[in-house]
Amino acid sequence: MPSKQVFASQDGAVYTTSTGAPVAQPYAAERVGSVGPLLLQDFHHIDLLAHFDRERIPERVVHAKGAGAHGYFEVTHDITELSCASLFSKVGNKARATVRFSTVGGEAGSADSARDPRGFAIKIKTDEGNLDWVFNNTPVFFIRDPAKFPHFIHTQKRDPQTHLKDADMFWDYLSQNPESIHQVMTLFSDRGHPDGYHNMHGYSGHTYKFVNKEGKFHYVQIHLIKDGGAKSLTEPEAGKLAGENPDYGIQSLFETIEAGNFPSWTVYVQTMTPEQAEKFRYNILDLTKVWPHKDYPMRPFGKLVLNENPQNYFAEIEQAAFSPSHSVPGIEPSADPVLQSRLFSYPDTHRHRLGTNYNQLPVNAPIAPVANFQRGGAMTFVSQGARPNYQSSLVPLKYKPKPYQDVKHEIWLGHANVDLSFVTELDFEQPRALYQKVFSDTDRDHLVHNVVVHLKNAKSKEVKDRTLSVFAAVDQSLSDRIASGIGSSPVAPLKVAPASEAIRFKAFA
Ligand code: HEM
């Protein structure tokens, strides 16, 4: 049961129309006589019905189901030599944060415990503008070529004819695009259904850049590690909850904060110099790979705490508009093409979902004063008054980053960035290590079970066999156990090119 007290008593406000005119009572309707037809002149009644007709806005095309809360980000360690972001300029700096957690594939009413990656989107309001970290709870992703994103998402959603989720479509895509296997292994472990929204870690996944005041950059990966550890559900627990309480995650986040047990995360950064990146075994722009912690240690620098439930879910969470392109000086995107595509996609969808002036909505409005030449558009709340609408009055930028001019590295990057759909043995090393070295026996048993209960719903033998061949390329015994679980014969590993054929190695041999 929700812990929130329901107020049955009146709160003292006088009932009005949306224009503030007092009305005798909410059910009032003007009509001809006492039982005759209703009158068009009755603004109150039409105002009531017309607003109700327009209560819904488009749900997010992905990540539609979610939960959120407010809190703060605090700097705990000095990283000024890495980034000149004013947020990081002093240990102890604090900024207000709004966080939205989500599942990916389901609609706004779908189950919180579904097997899915979880979104972990953070908006930090700094004195240099909003910094959004639009992360997931997995350190890697399914694709490294952004052109595949809409195709991939379609296969995880509903079939255009049956309007059903479809196991054949799901595994057909994944087995034809085996660079997804690292994320598939994570998704089908119990980490695919975290215990609620706030018992999970968050990862940038992509490589970003921290730029310091000299204009020098480091490649970085950011991790938010849940204080007290992450928790997962087992597949039977997640299935039971999906039926009994599909909003389990929303409820548990709300009640945890209401009870004063504020969820918190320690924020770490892994860093890599451009020189290290050139020698790294994997492409640093490939978000199907992780950076080994022993080579690139985790360095703590911040804390995220959620200590405030929204007063109004729609205004403060549904209307929140996160984007990797909402950033501040000192933090930049890398050339990862998936990240580059995201920089465009989020503001684009916000303009559709919330309108041109989405950044003027209170939850999105920066605390830094906005001064530019954007004017008008639907729902202009902040007009910038009488200030001219062309460059005449605004002072030039005070912050002048020194341009980074490592041309050699930029040329290297151009070569490194071509290795998108070409799958080699390199792509199986990390998933194999995950299965053979990181997972416990229980994790391995659960992975096999979790894949079996899903893959057995596929009807096509070709899709099942191709999927088994991808798992066999990770580990033959894993594939054989899945095959036996779904009643198929063992299948040989997918044939892929050796690691030495990877374009990045060939280009620099
Ligand atoms: C080409 C790749 C991708 C594209 C085109 C894409 C696109 C989108 C779109 C259109 C939304 C809906 C946003 C809204 O309506 O407010 C969304 C939500 C989201 N995406 Fe992505 N996405 C991609 C990959 C990723 C990756 C790799 C991550 C994490 C590392 C990620 C994390 C999220 C999160 C956390 C949300 C939910 C934000 C919220 O709570 O409002 N996405 N994405």
From TrEMBL:
Q: Which PROSITE patterns match?
A: CATALASE_1 (PS00437), CATALASE_2 (PS00438), CATALASE_3 (PS51402)
Q: Please write the reaction equations for the catalytic activity of this protein.
A: 2 H2O2 = O2 + 2 H2O
Q: Could you tell me which SMART domains the record lists for this protein?
A: Catalase
GO terms classed as biological process: hydrogen peroxide catabolic process; response to hydrogen peroxide
E.C. no = 1.11.1.6
Q: Which Pfam families match?
A: Catalase, Catalase-rel
Q: Where do the annotations place heme binding?
A: Y346
Which cofactors? heme
Q: Which InterPro entries does this UniProt record tie to the protein?
A: Catalase, Catalase_AS, Catalase_clade1/3, Catalase_core, Catalase_haem_BS, Catalase_immune_responsive, Catalase_sf
Highest taxon, organism lineage: Eukaryota
Write out the GO cellular component annotations: mitochondrion; peroxisome
**Sequence intervals crossing the membrane:** none
Sequence ranges assigned to domain Catalase core in this UniProt record: 16-398
Q: Where is the active site?
A: H63, N136
The UniProt GO MF terms for this protein read: catalase activity; heme binding; metal ion binding
Print the keywords alphabetically. Heme, Hydrogen peroxide, Iron, Metal-binding, Oxidoreductase, Peroxidase
Family indicated by similarity:
Belongs to the catalase family.
Q: What does this protein do?
A: Catalyzes the degradation of hydrogen peroxide (H(2)O(2)) generated by peroxisomal oxidases to water and oxygen, thereby protecting cells from the toxic effects of hydrogen peroxide.
Specify the protein name.
Catalase
Natural source organism: Fibroporia radiculosa
